[in-house]
């Protein structure tokens, strides 16, 4: 039994509210289920929101204790490359996480860097659960890609079915892969903000744009029921994609 959490993007307050609403207790400083349910994170824990480092700390503790499963998103990949010392553009949300990081003491910086790098390095590219009936992948995955981890698959899982072109607002142009998905595994993903969870062809997008002022959503599995809490962030309508 899993509770799969959509893109948190540093919205720690909403993460705490959502897990509490789902029946998790925070007595030990992290959300623990008394009924044996396990949290699964679709990636993009950080960037844009106000408390990215607190999200990292909580997810690190949970995964270390084997109480949760985490798969990385494109923002996670970029933060990992930043911590490696690779040249990355401090923009598109990363600047908020870096600002939090730079306010820490050098000892605290080493600790959070260690936690996130461990979290990222132990993570599968996507999670295969329930004997292969459930796949959790940040931006989705095609059935023929399941079981593979090539560069092409990694790009798809992090960014979706990108065309190589850009939209007028500078974001990558993406095909709607879920509209033509005919696979048997149930795919849970995020990455593309939608106003409400979008169920289509054995897939569901649960990134309901918490960091853009809508809500944070979890999918309960195997029930396939969604639970949400409202965001405390300002609402930015243009960030949501109409996929109806």
Secondary structure elements and their pairing?
Layout: E1 2-5, H1 12-21, E2 38-41, H2 52-64, E3 68-70, H3 74-84, H4 94-102, H5 106-122, E4 127-129, E5 134-136, H6 151-159, E6 161-166, E7 172-175, E8 186-189, E9 198-200, E10 203-205, E11 215-221, E12 225-230
Helix pairs in contact: 2-5, 3-5
Task: Describe the overall structure.
Helix 2 crosses helix 5 (106-122) and helix 3 (74-84) crosses helix 5. The protein has a 5-stranded mixed sheet. Strands 4-5-8-10-9 form a 5-stranded mixed sheet, with no helix packed on it. 41% of the residues are buried. The radius of gyration is 17 Å and the shape is globular. The protein has helices spanning 12-21, 52-64, 74-84, 94-102, 106-122, 151-159, and strands at 2-5, 38-41, 68-70, 127-129, 134-136, 161-166, 172-175, 186-189, 198-200, 203-205, 215-221, 225-230. The longest helix is centred in the middle third of the chain and has 17 residues, at 106-122. The mean pLDDT is 96. It starts with a strand and ends in a 14-residue tail after the last strand. The protein contains 6 helices and 12 strands. It is an alpha/beta fold.
Instruction: Characterize the biggest β-sheet.
Output: 5 strands, mixed
Estimate the mean pLDDT confidence.
96
Lateral arrangement of strands in the main beta sheet? 3-2-1-11-12
Total DSSP E strands = 12
Overall geometry: globular
Helical/strand content category: alpha/beta
Gyration radius over CA: 17 Å
């Amino acid at each position: 039994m899993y509770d799969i959490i959509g893109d948190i993007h540093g919205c720690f307050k909403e993460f705490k509210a959502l897990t509490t609403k789902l029946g998790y207790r925070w007595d030990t400083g992290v959300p623990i289920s008394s009924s044996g349910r396990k949290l699964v994170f679709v990636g993009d824990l950080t960037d844009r929101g106000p408390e990215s480092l607190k999200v990292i700390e909580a997810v690190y503790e949970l995964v270390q204790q084997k109480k949760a499963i985490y798969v990385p998103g494109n923002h996670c990949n970029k933060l990992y490359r930043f911590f490696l010392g690779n040249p990355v553009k401090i923009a598109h949300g990363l600047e908020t996480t870096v600002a939090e990081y730079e306010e820490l003491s050098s000892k605290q910086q080493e600790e959070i860097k260690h936690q996130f790098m461990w979290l990222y390095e132990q993570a599968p590219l996507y999670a295969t659960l329930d004997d292969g009936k459930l796949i959790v992948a940040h931006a989705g995955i095609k059935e023929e890609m399941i079981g593979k981890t090539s560069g092409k698959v990694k790009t798809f899982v992090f960014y979706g079915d990108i065309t190589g072109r850009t939209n007028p607002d500078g974001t990558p142009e993406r095909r709607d892969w879920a509209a033509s998905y005919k696979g048997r595994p149930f795919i849970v993903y995020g990455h593309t903000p939608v106003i409400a969870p979008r169920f289509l062809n054995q897939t569901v997008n649960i990134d309901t744009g918490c960091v853009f002022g809508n809500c944070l959503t979890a999918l309960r599995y195997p029930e396939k029921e969604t639970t949400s809490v409202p965001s405390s962030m300002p609402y930015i309508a243009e960030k949501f994609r109409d996929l109806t």
